[in-house]
Design brief:
Blueprint: E1 2-4, E2 7-9, H1 12-17, E3 19-23, E4 30-34, E5 46-50, E6 60-64, E7 70-75, E8 86-90, E9 97-101, E10 110-117, E11 120-131, E12 134-143, E13 148-158, E14 174-175, E15 190-197, E16 202-208, H2 214-231, E17 238-243, E18 246-253, E19 256-262, H3 268-281, H4 285-295, H5 298-301, H6 312-320, H7 336-346, H8 351-358, H9 364-371, H10 377-389
Parallel strand pairs: 14-16
Antiparallel strand pairs: 1-2, 3-4, 5-6, 6-7, 8-9, 10-11, 11-12, 12-13, 15-16, 15-19, 17-18, 18-19
Helix pairs in contact: 4-6, 7-8
Length: 394
């Protein structure tokens, strides 16, 4: 055995039994450890994280080839110790960002095995997501807190070749992989608000109270939509579907479906027309994913008991008007004091707030959130219109 350029070379007997001597790049402490060959990539280098206290009191990474030859080390600058439950990694096949939780059985296919490596317990999870017309499956190693360590393998299945034998009789759905968002567990207006796709079988869950299992519900809704397709020559764009004695509202937009359930069904009189207008404009996924989260901010501006039909135009602006989400840019900065004079005389808003508003680089929505004056949304929209009519925005 010899060491050269921070690489450790073992004799043939060591390779055969899978023992490798590891030396900490910080304190140089060394130890023989056993590395299972089945975790090594068939080509290239495998990155392995060495946990703290398995060799010494440092955490570091090593790079090893498929012949169990250590090719180098990497120091770890920072380690999160506790509380990690969400796992993030990139799919080996399409590089999509994937997120799952070890405490959420609906976010992964299977917990395959538990093993003790380097004196620490690791778990192997099978995680799947849909990409175009394929199902991508990644097998990943995490620790008991959900911290990601490495990937063992990946595979893909064409959807036309895919059957439900692995997953049971109900079609499985997976969370949309291209987003980083937290699902709201409570909301003033919605108990449930999701978008799902019946062709690619993903779900984007924006609101879901704890008593509802969004993944399983989506699978059941999918079956009822398929049933409707068999019965009717054309499925209606607006559906009400009952599942487990609860009624859900659906807007069918080709393969994209918006589904929601309200905390108070009395609000359907204004929510349904709102959804109608939203979905009349576009069925594209990019449009829906950009606009639908804005609907969830409605309760921040209006108490649900106060929402009346006359508020619908303002709510529609909140959803549709991208200018409200863009940074303020006035054409004639030298005329700003005169503009503010005119605005203070026309609108009941303090001069100090207007000066701050026009002398910062925030969108209207961000500014109102920062100042805690969301209740003044309607007045600021009137100011926007006043300025825009005079073509004072760049």
């Amino acid at each position: 055995m010899k060491m050269s350029d921070n690489n450790i070379l073992l004799n043939k007997e060591d390779y055969d039994i899978g023992n490798v001597i590891i030396a900490c790049p910080i304190c140089k402490a060394s130890k023989f450890i056993h590395i299972p060959r089945d975790i090594l990539k068939p080509k290239g280098l495998t990155t392995i994280s060495i946990p703290k206290d398995s060799i010494c009191n440092h955490q570091f990474q090593l790079y090893i080839d498929n012949n169990l030859k250590v090719r180098g080390y990497q120091k770890v600058d920072f380690e999160l110790i506790d509380g990690i439950k969400e796992t993030n990694f990139n799919c080996q096949l399409c590089n999509a960002k994937i997120r799952f939780r070890i405490d959420d059985e609906n976010s992964y296919l299977e917990n395959i095995s538990r093993n003790i490596f380097f004196g620490k317990e690791f778990l192997l999870y099978k995680v799947a997501h849909y990409f175009k017309n394929e199902l991508h499956i990644n097998n990943v190693f995490v620790d008991k807190t959900g911290r990601y360590y490495d990937q063992l393998s990946s595979s893909k299945i064409k959807l036309e070749e895919y059957t439900n034998k692995e997953l049971g009789t109900t079609q499985q759905f997976y969370r949309y992989s291209g987003l980083t968002h937290e699902t709201l567990k409570e909301h003033t207006i919605f108990n449930l608000f999701i978008i799902f796709n019946i062709s690619d079988h993903w779900i984007y869950d924006m609101v879901c109270i704890p008593s509802i299992n969004a993944i399983q519900l989506t699978s059941l809704l999918y079956e009822k939509i398929q049933e409707a397709k068999k019965v009717y020559s054309e499925v209606q764009k607006y559906l009400k579907i009952s599942v487990a004695d609860q009624e859900f509202q659906l807007r069918v937009l080709n393969s994209n479906i918006i589904c929601y359930k309200l905390t108070n069904d009395n609000n359907l009189y204004w929510v349904n027309p709102l959804m109608e207008k939203l979905t009349q404009k576009s069925h594209s996924l990019d449009y829906l994913i950009s606009k639908c989260p804005r609907i969830l901010t409605i309760n921040e501006y209006f108490n649900e008991k106060e929402i009346t039909l006359d508020k619908i135009p303002v709510i529609q602006r909140l959803i549709d008007d991208d200018l409200l989400y863009s940074k303020i840019q006035i054409k004639y900065k030298e005329r700003l004091p005169r503009i503010i004079d005119r605005l203070t005389s026309a609108f009941k808003i303090e001069r100090e707030i207007l000066e701050e508003f026009f002398n910062q680089e925030m969108s209207l929505i961000d500014f109102l959130n920062k100042r805690g004056i969301l209740s003044q949304l309607e007045q600021f929209i009137e100011i926007y219109d006043f300025i825009n009519r005079r073509k004072l925005f760049e």
